[in-house]
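Our consortium's second objective concerns turning raw sequence data into structural hypotheses that experimental partners can test. To show how far this objective has progressed, the report includes one record in full. It was chosen at random from the queue rather than selected for favorable results. The single chain below, 200 residues long, was entered without modification.
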Amino acid sequence: MDRLRSALLEHRRLLAALCTALAVLLALASVRRPPDQVEVAVAARDLASGTVLSAGDVTSSLLPAAAAPQHLLSSDDLVGRRVGGPMRRGEAFTDVRLLAAGPVDGLPPDHVVTAVRLADAAGGQGLRVGDRVEVLAVATGAGGPRASVVASGAVVAALPDPDGSDAPTLWLTVPRETALELARVGVEAQLSVVVEAGDD
């Protein structure tokens, strides 16, 4: 016993150094230990509203589980789907970021999704996917400018790209006959939209 005590006393500085080093290593390990992470499907590049996703538009990223948004979609569910609004590179894909699977899935009978080129670059600001809008046409005739309602109850299917041209394109769900009328009027008049009363 005296021999053990003597050995401990003789090497006490070495033992203290070893204990200190072990404590430092344990502390560093706890700091470096990554939090629980989940693999999330994210946009591989900036995506314009209405983009139909291809494999090159989707990549994956690791996020802390506590920071990951809810209702995430897997990569297998994304190819062929249409983006319902502009997305930035690295933004996670959730159920509210995409339209129904396929451009016409879930449409009422004899309805289509049609593109409307707006006259005003700011015409799509403040709109949301799902809003109901009226499409107004302003044509210039002998008696001066004349405005008329071309479509009512049109549902916004996809929003204009905020970095796009001066004449943004808005995608609307409308009856087939209305789409034909919008195409006809759009050649000779300037189009704009207003949100119908009752939409938040």
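The partners drew two points from this record. The chain has a mean pLDDT of 79. The CA atoms of residues 131 and 199 lie 6 Å apart. Both points have been shared with the crystallography group to help prioritize constructs.
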